[in-house]
Design goal:
The complex is a heterodimer. Chain A is mostly helical. Chain A has 3 helices and 1 strand. The longest helix of chain B is centred in the last third of the chain and has 34 residues. Classes of the chains: A mainly alpha, B mainly alpha.
Chain lengths: ~120, ~210
Amino acid sequence: MDGDDQLLADRTPGVEEHESTASVLSYTVGLGLAIVATIASFVVSQTDLLWPPGIPTGLIVLALAQIGVHLVFFLHLGSGPDQTNNILALAFGVLIVFLVIAGSIWIIANLNANMTTMPTH
Amino acid sequence: MSTAAFEVAPKRLAPQSDGGPAPTRIVVAYGFWIFILSDIVMFSALFAAYAVLSNNTAGGPSGAELFNLRNVFLMTMCLLFSSYTAGLGALSAEQRKPERFLVFAAVTFVLGAAFLFLEMSEFAGMISKGAGPWRSAFLSAFFTLVGMHGAHVTGGLVWLAYMMAQVAAKGLRPAVLRRLLCFSLFWHALDIVWIGVMTLVYLMGAQ
C-alpha cells in the first residue's frame, strides 16, 4: 500500500462529515421540512382536503416522508459506499418492524372476522 | 506496488481490511445504532398492540373524545426543535466549543422537559376523567405505547444532564465525544418514534 491509497472507511452513523456550515444548513433544512410535514399531517387529518377514505393512507405517506427527512438530515444517513453497514442494519430493522406490525394487524383482523358475535354485558 | 495499472488510477480504493480495525468512534456508534434499531423493533410490538386494540374501548371513551390535537401539535414542535438544538449542540461539540455545546444542551433539555410536562398533564387529565389504563384495552395499549416513549424521553433527559456535567467537568475529550454521539443518535431516534405515535395514535385516533 502506498501513501496515495484512499481507504474506503465506514461512516460513523449520525455524523455529517462535511464543512460545519453545511451541517448547520442540513439541520435547518431538516427542521423546516419536518415542520412542513407535521403541519401537513395535522391539516390533512382535520380537513376534507383529501378524499376522506384516503386520509389514513395520506397520513401514513406523510409520516414515512417525515421519517425519511429525519433519517437524512438529522441522522445523516446516505446511500454512499461508506454507509453500507448502517443502511443494511436499518433495512433489517425496517423488515422486522414491518413483519411485526403488518403481521399482527393481518392476523388479528382475520381472527376478528371469524369470531362469532358475543353477547354484550 | 507501482505497476502500470495502478499509475493510471493512483487514487484507487484500498480494501477496507487493509486499514486495520475500524476506529473506536465508528465501532461505538455502530453498536449503538444496532441498539437503537432493536429498541425500535421493541416499539413496533407496542405499535402493533395498539393498532390491534385501538377499537376495543369496552364502552369507555374513544380517542376522538380524549385527544386534544393542539396539545399534540405543541408536543411535536417541542420534540422537533429539541432535535434541532441537539444537532447544533453535537456540531459545537465536534468543533470543540464546550460553552456553545452547554447552551444548546440546556435548550434541548428545556424543550424535552416541556414535552414531558405536556404529556404528563395529558395523562393526568385522562386519569382524572376515569380514562386510565385500566378502563379499556384501547387505553391500556395507549398508556403502554405513549408511556414507553415518555419513559425514553425521561431517560434521555437524565442522560443529557449527565452529559452536560461530563462536558463541564472533563471537557470534550474523545470518550466524552463518543458518548455525546450516542446520545445524539438516541435523541433523534426518539423523534422518529414520536412521528409514528403522532400519526398512528393521535391523528388517526382523532378521526
